[in-house]
């Protein structure tokens, strides 16, 4: 058996396999702009790009490097739809709103596919398997596929029984699933950096290593950084789970959680081809979800595992590898080349948190695992709202948003309790 390296190289496999963006300057002076965008991930980059294309003078502030948050660290699954199924949206909001939300979800995927068609190379590969680990829940997948076909005209979902799924995913961990032909997967850092290059070409002034420390509300607003200040007529809050302490309303509604991923060494071609049929990605039905795909370098990229605090496990590679082997025990002799963590934003409802913030601010975040498609789209939605066209923004802003109880001070214990509860449910197959 090949032992796993106790200390794979730091950083993601994505950063190791794509050209970096040239370093952008640190803000060290007072500047003015039409719009200040806080956050250099999918949402902020897409918003800045759209606003610059509309002729606005845009400054973008990123606390680290562009794409270094969840946008450049996630599993790369580009999924159609929102985090909640349409049946649940119908129950929560009624048929009319549920259908409007589905139309928006389709528009988000059209926007995403348009980025790829326009030449933004991010290794897009079609196909996703939705895997079910609970035998009693397999029949519900067929009902869901039929519901989507009959009531929404969506015919991309194919139900798969136990024999079908084992022919497509080389694992005994699952007893059924769906093939989603309308979804796919990408190299997410390539997507983020592609958006960043386009934003720079459009004239966006990007400042890295420049966190926003405080925002003074008003028109114009003032955004304070360690070495400078931005005065802007509008502010786009696009930091998702990465700007805790900046805006209390966002902190109450978007919780940052840690997620962990590994990438194996390149697999022998026959083994790589055997794991998931057709080059598709896969995710499962656990609350603490497992998600995985084989990338274009024949590496298995596998995400899974949870912690009860914001501290990373001491050995990330071994931590995630234990989960990988529950799905693919045949990979026991395969070495881990990279292992990393990242912070994403979730909401109580698992629906995006979209709101106006004070006099000058617009915010969107909490994509709850659907950010590859939704975050760039919501960046465009924020930009359109800033330009005075706010129909989609207003749809999401009108949805109820439940705050996390206790506020930021109780995030860690609430996270521990919640993850322990759902981990038990997953183990019991509930």
TrEMBL record:
Keyword tags: Oxidoreductase
Domain FAD dependent oxidoreductase residue range list: 34-384
InterPro entries per UniProt: FAD-dep_OxRdtase (IPR006076), FAD/NAD-bd_sf (IPR036188)
The protein, known as: FAD-dependent oxidoreductase
Pfam family of the protein (one): DAO
One cellular component (GO) term of this entry: cytoplasm
One GO MF term: oxidoreductase activity
Domain of life: Bacteria
